[in-house]
Design brief:
alpha/beta, 7-stranded mixed β-sheet, two-stranded parallel sheet, 14% strand, globular, endoplasmic reticulum, diacylglycerol O-acyltransferase activity
Length: 335
């Protein structure tokens, strides 16, 4: 395989964009393991008292990820996220105003491999979320497993990440003062196994838990489609029923996290590596679907709202697809 190296005379700004994205990839793939290892080493060192104090803090703070988290506007506004946005680049597209007195559930599609658009738009201020939607606070839901990792949990909560457990979502969308936005990558980890360039399959037909909670708490549903999300990485072929896919499904059932075998480019060359391609991401936030609060929704209520949500998502995609590089004959497939 011929390796295409990056030229030496790349402008400093592009190098900073690459560095910012590299630290983001590291955070997703290895920071949790490093934090856990660091905590264990601290506990075994002469500084074990610090580890003990942190363990006490962890015990007292255990429920915070499912109780709104602990956002830091300072961390969300770090300059590094501007370089991260420029790398792709990422754009947040607003279609309508949202009332800050209400709570919202944003259904984010597609999941992609590392949810780059979800992170860049809703865990940082790089694309101007607070400016576009004044009075709203965004929270991206993440698997509860990651909030059990010492130190790492505190870092990710600063960006607005919270646990994806039922109680966490209920907490956010039941606040009487309103203004909370819970962002859910509806397809979940399993959809990441199908994330590759050109993919338009969304795992959503059996995802109705967020619909039920929207009805129960009267939260407004908002479809969100991130054009370009699946273009960032290639992935080894893993068709349904293949040995690799069966292994990935088995690991997911055991560990709770997907293990896509993805690849793209490197830091100093463009031929292979775990850095995402420089492909634009346009995250379009649709119009809210009015939801009447129903404390005990029936299966018919859930099915009806779910059907309405899928139609709104389809309309959003069809309305904007040609503006962001897709052809008229490309359509979403729900599975």
């Amino acid at each position: 395989m011929k390796i295409e190296f990056a030229p030496l005379n790349i402008p400093l700004r592009r190098r900073l964009q690459t560095a910012a994205t590299l630290q983001w990839v590291f955070s997703f793939l290895a920071l949790a393991q490093c934090c856990l290892a660091g905590f264990v080493l601290l506990a075994l060192s002469d500084w074990w008292m610090l580890a003990l104090l942190y363990a006490g803090w962890l015990w007292l703070d255990w429920d915070t990820p499912s109780s709104g988290g602990r956002r830091s506007q300072w961390v969300r506004s770090w300059r590094v996220w501007d370089y991260f946005r420029e790398y792709f680049p990422i754009q947040l597209v607003k279609t309508v105003d949202l009332d800050p007195k209400k709570n919202y559930i944003f259904g984010f599609h597609p999941h992609g491999v590392l949810v780059a658009g979800g992170f860049g738009n809703f865990c940082t201020e790089a694309t101007g979320f607070s400016r576009l939607f004044p009075g709203l606070r965004s929270h991206l839901l993440m698997l509860p497993f990651w909030f059990r990792v010492p130190l790492f949990r505190d870092y990710i909560m600063c960006g607005g990440l919270v646990s994806s457990c039922k109680s966490s979502l209920s907490y956010l969308v039941s606040r009487p003062e309103g203004g909370n936005v819970a962002v859910i990558a509806v397809g979940g980890a399993s959809e990441a196994l199908d994330a590759r360039p050109g993919a338009l399959k969304l795992q959503v037909l059996d995802r109705k838990g967020f619909i039920k909670l929207a009805l129960k708490h009267g939260a407004q549903l908002v479809p969100v489609f991130s054009f370009g999300e699946n273009e960032l990485f290639d992935q080894m072929e893993n068709p349904t029923g293949s040995p690799l896919r069966r292994l990935q499904n088995r690991l997911q059932s055991i560990m709770g996290v997907a293990m896509p075998l993805f690849h793209a480019r490197g830091v100093f060359q463009y031929s292979f590596g775990l850095m995402p391609y420089r492909k634009p991401i346009h995250t379009v936030v649709g119009a809210p679907i009015p939801v009447v609060q129903t404390p005990s929704p029936t299966s018919e209520d859930i099915q009806s709202l779910h059907k309405c949500y899928l139609q709104s998502l389809t309309d959003l995609f069809e309305q904007h697809k040609q503006s962001y590089g897709l052809s008229e004959d490309q359509h979403l497939t729900f599975i």
